[in-house]
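Quick check before the chapter quiz. The format below is the same one you will see on the exam, so make sure you can read both the input and the output lines.
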Amino acid sequence: LVGLGNYTHPNTRHNVGMMVLDQIANKLDLTWTQNRTLKATISQTSLDIENKDKSRTRIDVTLLKPRLLMNVSGPSVSKAVREFSIDHSNIYVLHDDLQRPLGKVSMKSGGSANGHNGIKSVIQHLCSENFKRVRIGIGRPPDD
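Here is the expected output.
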């Protein structure tokens, strides 16, 4: 899971991707560590997931908050994907979406960046659009 935002401006609406990751980490009682190689703050865990047939599957989860400005976060994401051998189909990027009303969440699998420069950077550095996006509505303020 990747949370996009501008780490230099915490608690602003454009940081909603990072804020959601913070909530997930808090809920799972995880701690964050700086990873200079990845230029990111990361947290990792394994989860036991119950399948429809009641069997269990163990999955490894990495939470990543790039320590780069949102519009150039692609290098951090691509380094993490290589470092942890993550298949592109298992990447979920959480990001702000001005086009959606505040609090409205939607999922998109692949496709264009829809004008989001952070997503453009991730696409460019992964050389692929084949990853999932969790678009979190922040709405447009009257002066945008």
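If your answer matched, good. The chain has a mean pLDDT of 95.
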